[in-house]
Structures are given as C-alpha cells and as structure tokens.
Design a protein that fits this description.
single chain, 183 residues, mainly alpha, 2 domains, 10 helices, elongated
Length: 183
C-alpha cells in the first residue's frame, strides 16, 4: 500500500503543530518539514516518489514562506528572545552567536540580537561563574588558575572578562546578577 504524498494542507498542519511545540526560525521549520517529506519518501512504495518528493519540497517551502509572511515565524524575534535567555543563563556572546547560527539565523540578524556590550558579557561571565561555583561563588579552594580560566575559555569568554568576573567580591557579583535578571 502506497502512502499519499504530503500536500500543502498537510504540511501546513504539520508546521502549525511544530510551531505550537517549539520556537522556530525559518530554517528550522523548513528542516522539520523536509525531514517529514524524507520520512514519507523512505516509506513510500510509489514508482513516482521522486517527482512527488520534489513537489512536496516545493510545497514545504511555500508553506514556510506563507507563515513567515503571516508573522508566525520571526527570525529576529526568535534571535532576540533566545539571545536574552542564553545570556541570562551565562552563555558568552560567541556561544550565543554559534547557537543562533546553528538555528539558521543569518549574520545580520545575529548582529542586531547580540550587540557588542562589555557589561552584558561580564554579567554572562558572572552567571557562568555562579553556575559553576567559581570565583565569588566558589568555596575558595579553587584559585583562578589555568583550569578555571580554561573553563571560561571553552565557554567562549575572553581571558580578561573571565579574570574580571573571578576577581569580583560576592556582593558585587550578586548585584551584577540582579541587574542581569532585571533586564
């Protein structure tokens, strides 16, 4: 028994179901719909599956374009919200930019969502230090040695930002975190 190819209406419903569950960019929604079409093509026994697959792929791109035009998919809004959330969680500007690039956000949109703000980078480094219990949040047993600085470097923080975050007094670090949470 051959399964019918996904048509534009079915793909639109699948896209809406995906958007109901996940925040998505244009690229991630397109990838999700194309994966759905590929699953159909693998299960299909139809001899004309290649032509139907090409038509379904075109329909998927049309569905995504329609949702972008309607405002249901907004790469700029996604990038700003995700960047804010990740910065509050202690992710560096580099790590956030890499995350957004992996989600298909273009460089110009990433640039507007991630302004080059040294205070925000320090606040993210302080949040990272708190999560890892380093520096002002540590037990005092782990100095700001190579292992600690390497952890900051792997997270994408510059050495001077890491050293500044590690040298803060606990009260000052808590004040920075409070400003970060307040927005």
């Amino acid at each position: 028994m051959s399964l019918p190819p996904p048509d534009e209406a079915a793909l639109h419903e699948a896209a809406l179901a995906y958007l109901a569950r996940f925040a998505a960019t244009e690229a991630t929604l397109t990838r999700a719909l194309l994966r759905r079409i590929d699953r159909w093509a693998r299960r299909s026994e139809s001899p004309v599956a290649a032509a139907q697959t090409a038509a379904a792929r075109a329909a998927a791109r049309a569905v995504v374009a329609r949702l972008v035009a309607a405002g249901a998919v907004d790469d700029r809004g996604f990038a700003e919200a995700r960047a804010t959330r990740l910065r509050r969680a202690g992710r560096s500007r580099r790590a956030v930019a890499a995350h957004l690039a992996a989600r298909g956000v273009d460089a110009a949109t990433r640039g507007t969502a991630l302004p080059d703000d040294p205070e925000a980078e320090l606040a993210a480094a302080v949040a990272f230090a708190r999560r890892r219990r380093l520096g002002p949040f540590g037990t005092g047993q782990e100095p700001a040695g190579p292992r600690v600085l390497a952890a900051f470097a792997r997270a994408g923080f510059a050495q001077e930002v890491a050293r500044t975050a590690l040298a803060l007094a606990p009260e000052e670090a808590e004040a920075i975190l409070a400003r970060l949470r307040a927005g």
